[in-house]
């Protein structure tokens, strides 16, 4: 199973808990060391995005504040808050699934990592398993309406 498929599995867990289906995993030395999904509604916490939670978990596991040799796989283009956390944690690479023209901050919006004030610029790869990730999100929001 690919790393992005593992992130999609996390997104499915979020969906089962009535959370926006976004999942993330962090890979270190070829091994998934942390996995999470959105828990905003469950925790009643607007900061409980999949990326934030998985970064916290990886930092605890590696006992560090810098994830310089780690890669993030996430099912949706990160928002500005998550992009900031990615920069501060110094993730090496970010792979994301669906593009987010409305709330994304990597290829859309503020284009966080392109700003001269950005502390760290990870390698970015968007559109991985894009259709699968999009399908999950679209189905979730159709059911909500």
Can you give keywords for this protein?
alpha/beta, 145 residues, globular
| Share in helix | 25-40%
The counted number of beta strands is 5
SSE pattern: HEEHHEHEEH
Overall pLDDT score: 97
Low-confidence stretches: none
Radius of gyration: 14 Å
Helix/strand-derived category reads alpha/beta
| H/I helix tally | 5
Strand content: 15-25%
Q: Give the overall shape.
A: globular
Largest sheet: 5 strands, mixed
Arrangement of strands in the largest sheet:
2-1-3-4-5
Distance between the termini: 33 Å
Q: Can you offer a commentary on this structure?
A:
- The chain is α/β, with parallel strands linked by helices and about 140 residues long.
- The protein has five helices and five strands.
- Strands 2-1-3-4-5 form a five-stranded mixed β-sheet.
- α1 runs parallel beside α5 and α3 runs parallel beside α4.
- It starts with a helix and ends with a helix.
- The model has no long low-confidence stretch (mean pLDDT about 95).
Question: How do the helices and strands line up, and which of them pair or pack?
Answer:
Elements: H1 3-16, E1 23-28, E2 31-37, H2 40-43, H3 50-62, E3 70-76, H4 80-89, E4 93-98, E5 123-126, H5 130-144
Parallel strand pairs: 3-4, 4-5
Antiparallel strand pairs: 1-2, 1-3
């Amino acid at each position: 199973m690919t790393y992005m498929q593992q992130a999609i599995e996390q997104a499915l867990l979020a969906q089962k808990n009535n959370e926006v289906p976004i999942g993330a995993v962090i890979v270190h030395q070829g091994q998934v060391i942390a996995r999470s999904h959105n828990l905003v509604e469950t925790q009643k916490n607007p900061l409980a995005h999949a990326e934030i939670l998985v970064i916290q978990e990886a930092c605890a596991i590696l006992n560090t504040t810098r994830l310089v040799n780690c890669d993030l796989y996430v099912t949706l283009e990160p928002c500005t808050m998550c992009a900031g956390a990615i920069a501060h944690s110094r993730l090496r690479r970010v792979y994301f699934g669906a593009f987010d023209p409305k709330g994304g901050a990597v290829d859309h919006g503020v284009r966080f990592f392109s700003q001269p004030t950005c502390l760290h610029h990870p390698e970015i790869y968007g559109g991985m398993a894009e259709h699968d990730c999009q399908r999950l999100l679209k189905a979730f929001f159709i059911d909500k309406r």
